[in-house]
Amino acid sequence: MEYGDLLVEERQGVCAVTLNRPEKLNALRPRTVYELITVLDHVNRSDDVRVLLISGAGRGFCSGADLTSGGDSGEAAQLDEAIGYRRVIEAPIGRWGVLFSLLYGCPKPFIAAVNGVAAGAGLSLALTADIRIASEQASFISAFVRRGLGPDTGTSYLLPRLIGDGRALQMTLTGDAVDAATAERWGLVNRVVAAEALQETARELAVRLARGPAVTLEATKKLIRRESQAEFERQMQSEAWVAGIATEDRAEGGQAFREGRQPRWTGR
User: Fold this and answer.
1) Tell me, which fold does domain 6-243 have in CATH?
2) Which site in 117, 157, 234, 264 is 20 to 30 Å from 131, CA atoms measured?
């Protein structure tokens, strides 16, 4: 398959995926979601792929959902059909639920090489990885509250399990950025390296894992995750319920973003 929003390379047992919309800080539009689902379906089935590695092109890892792509609803419907309507309807939060369930449930070791900002659903994307290696230039933002939204795409499940309730609430209630050094201290990332060393460091670890005992690694991951996949999906259903609450602030948050101004919250 040819990809428009991704660069995909397979070698040495590693499927390396680069989000390739640098002009949008690799924001996720429907086509990006569809292409990622396609890659993950392949990774899950392939005996040749032993490790998944995801990074971003340019200065961002992933800035979250592309709120400027609302005009491609026709294409989105076509992509949902390609994914499978039943699969989309039955998943928590539709196509996003399909994607994040596949990311969190990937049976192969999954490394995120976080090269820049990881915000909103981009933060969630990093959180679904088994190992996160960050550039010194990386930052992590639970940006949902900036749009008048509650956290979604699994953030409310994954973030407190990594850094505890207090720090997770600090991130989700304020929307403040967390720099790479703080993220490492909090346990949000496994390691921080110089920007120029990120790709090589992540690649070396991915190849090392790919050369390991694949069945044992997958079984180990399954042991550690155990029942968490079902819990993760239940939490995404709860997030979807919160996301469905229509408020004036939610509408204002989206409008303010599109107009490039600070939102004027009313508490309604």
Assistant:
1) 2-enoyl-CoA Hydratase; Chain A, domain 1 (3.90.226)
2) 234
